[in-house]
Amino acid sequence: MNPYYPVLFSPLKLGKRIAKNRIFMSAMGDNMGDPDGSISEQHIAYYAERAKGGVGVILTGCMGIDDPQGKATPSQPRITDPKHQKNLERLAREVHRYGALLIPQILHAGEIAKCTEGVKPVSVSPVKDHEDEYEVLTVEKIKEIQKKFVQSALIAKLTHCDGVEIHAAHMYLISQFLLPRYNQRTDDYGGSLENRARFGLEVLRAVRAAVGPDFVVGVRLGIHYVGFPDGLTEEDSVQLCKWYEEAGADFIDVSASLALPGNLIETMSRPEGNRVALTDSVRGSVKVPMGVLGKIRTPGFCEDLLANDRCDFVVIGRQLICDPYWANKAKAGKADEILPCLSCSEGCSKELNIHNSVRCVLNPEAGYEFYKKLEPMPAVKKKVAVVGGGLSGMQAAITAASRGHSVVLLEAAERLGGQMHLAKVSPHKDVIGKAEKWFEEELGRRGVEVRLGVKADKAAIDAIAPDAVILATGAVPLVLPIPGIEKGVQAWDLLAGKVEAPKGRKVVIVGGGIVGCEIAECLMADNDVTILEMMPGIAGNLFPFTKMDMVAAFQKFGVKPIVEAKVKEIQDDAVVFEKGGETMRAEADCIIIALGQTSFGREFVEELEDAGYEVTAVGDLARPSDFLNATTTGFFAGLNL
């Protein structure tokens, strides 16, 4: 029995198989598939790393059973042909090597499929005003798709996978049959709940009959969403769980039926275990193991869920992208060494939205596991000086030290963190502070020598006599030549606590980028806030669901964003701006400047290069950007030494 989390690390029976613990890696899109739909080398390395990290069950990102009509993403792997067997079997071997079970998730995306040009996605019912864009399913086509589910499951069995999970949630095809908003059929597959459930249950029964009793068949079931008129009721959800158990499901992991913002990809503002209440509503309706998912982050939270019989297993997603060794660290009683997921979606979901492979803003190795394996350890160990203790500098130092180099990190301030110290101030951003602490402690675990309160100059570098220098001197606030700009307060000074936050005042924020909007979040409860932004929208490229939460909060507290506003002058009691060719005035008791940032320290790069040092600029010094840029550039700087 594990002394730290005894239930979490107890075995779990899944049909005729035994999972070594109660930790499932959630199926998530990854966009790593090879062009022919095969599992890629990067896939194998990515999942193997999580299996090595200690999870009991790997649920792969959804794999298509029908190409091109049924694929959910452009680079989705699929199990539609015997040619896909080779790499899937190799993946199974790698996962089994570490004692985990491999259960691919299989699906048909239905109406929301990303079809190739000239191919129509299928629709359960005619789509009003868009009939020509979809192929409405006939009974014959329904039977054909069901056979493809069976074929995919059989291929998974041939390749020594331990089972399959049928995706019946998140507005994919089985869920589309279940939901009245999609299903307007009048035959045996529409109308009553029994009829709407018929398609998915027939899929499950056919798969079970084909693969036999020794192969695990699970279901990700989308159930009711309280307060949404086109969702399923609690009574519907209980009945569905019973039907799926009777049809042969070995386990059910419960999610939402509808892909609503914050409902499937939880933002920072959502609590841990955001979807646990869904499982609570159907818990006890079946005897097969039932799991929970939705912003599952900490081992203690998981142990409590299991110990209180709220679930039989936990399904962990983005946290395992962030730290693949979550399970091993928890098992060893080192939960404090887990790198915490920010729930920002900036590296994972956002990258998938633009058809890149999955990444992580805090773990630059995510999506790069295979290529890192090809990097030989350096033959010559170097002495490395890292200047700057922000996120990028810390990442560079950690990576360099992990490669065997001797690293000294110099930071001018009396603390590490850089802009992380500012970013954690806004509402719901306290997890950034936890990440900041992790990086600081990881420097110690990696043996990096940290010198705080040291303003680095050439003499300081000469005293270290390094073989290589990594400069992570960051950025400073951008100051534009706007008349009267000195009358405003810099956003960074407010976040750093150098300036007292206003209360009960009219506040105008000049600049509606991410920092300007975060300032608004900090002040909106106690002030009348207006944001002036020159671009057509606020918050730039912020992940859409996060932006939706932000906009909803702005509406609640009466924040007034004014876009396409060009600031002309800052006065003592107002900001003068131009919008649509008209000069306007926003009255203010307090004016805050949030115009972005500019690199700091370029002259130092040139000075050290002229002195003959090997210099690499990282983070905001290389290009003012975000956390993803900071960790990525820091990682490669340390890797390339």
Q: Percentage of helical residues?
A: 25-40%
Q: What's the main sheet like? A: 10 strands, parallel
Q: Report the total helices.
A: 21
- SS elements, strand count: 29
How much is the radius of gyration in Å? Answer: 27 Å
Helix/sheet category: alpha/beta
> What percentage of amino acids are in beta strands?
15-25%
Order of strands, main sheet, comes to 5-7-10-11-12-13-14-3-4-6
Judging from the principal axes of the Cα atoms, what is the shape? globular
Low-confidence stretches: none
Distance between the termini: 43 Å
Average residue-wise pLDDT: 93
Give a written overview of the molecule.
- The structure is a single chain.
- The chain is of the alpha/beta class and 641 residues long.
- It is 33% helix and 18% strand.
- The chain is built from 21 helices and 29 strands.
- The strands form seven sheets. A ten-stranded parallel sheet has the order 5-7-10-11-12-13-14-3-4-6.
- β22, α19 and β23 (560-563) form a beta-alpha-beta unit.
- α1 runs parallel beside α2 (85-97) and α13 (391-402) packs parallel to α21.
- The radius of gyration is 27 Å and the shape is globular.
- The model has no long low-confidence stretch (mean pLDDT 93).
Question: What labels describe this entry?
Answer:
single chain, 641 residues, alpha/beta, ten-stranded parallel sheet, five-stranded parallel sheet, 21 helices
Write a concise synopsis of the structure shown.
With 641 residues, the protein is an alpha/beta fold. Helix content is 33%, strand content 18%.
